[in-house]
């Protein structure tokens, strides 16, 4: 399975980079992982709705340019479906069984994802109704992918 994370924004904090590196290393025995970091667009203070939409659209075009035609795209979206870790593991497993061996997970910037990216997504997942910093969320997503593989393989980790 090939898993790609397309993320808007760079990780600046060393402790988060260390966690990402650790989960990337752990995942290397289960899948081929690629993380694509895209530059986030600066949002001015008191930006208008129109300006925010333009920023999301620009980030969206950048995201879409990195998605291959044969990719199964999963958008991390507040309007997506909330699922358990076991359901997430089944989702990953079923994608592989159905021939979707190129999974792309998308984490948007601070304003979220553009309508075009949402339309391109084959599936939308919401981890929580809470808002998380996208840098921290990257660690959370990698941990859940790792947990999912451990569940799929019946290996100890999940409790």
Task: Please explain how this structure is put together.
This protein is of the alpha/beta class. The chain has a single domain, classed as 3-Layer(aba) Sandwich (Alpha/beta knot). It has five helices and five strands, in the order E-H-E-H-E-H-E-H-E-H. The radius of gyration is 16 Å and the shape is globular. The two termini are 24 Å apart.
Biggest sheet features: 5 strands, parallel
Q: Helicity level, as a percent range?
A: 40-55%
Mean pLDDT: 94
The sequence of SSEs as H and E is EHEHEHEHEH
Which strand order does the major sheet show?
2-1-4-3-5
Give the percentage of residues in beta strands: 15-25%
Number of strands: 5
Helical run tally: 5
Which structural class should the secondary elements be placed in? alpha/beta
Rough shape? Answer: globular
Please report the distance between the alpha carbons of the first and last residues: 24 Å
CATH class category label: Alpha Beta
CATH superfamily: SPOUT methyltransferase, trefoil knot domain
- In the CATH hierarchy, the architecture is 3-Layer(aba) Sandwich
Uncertain segments: none
- Identify the quaternary structure here: single chain
Function: Specifically methylates the pseudouridine at position 1915 (m3Psi1915) in 23S rRNA.
EC number: 2.1.1.177
Enzyme class: transferase
Keywords: Cytoplasm, Methyltransferase, rRNA processing, S-adenosyl-L-methionine, Transferase
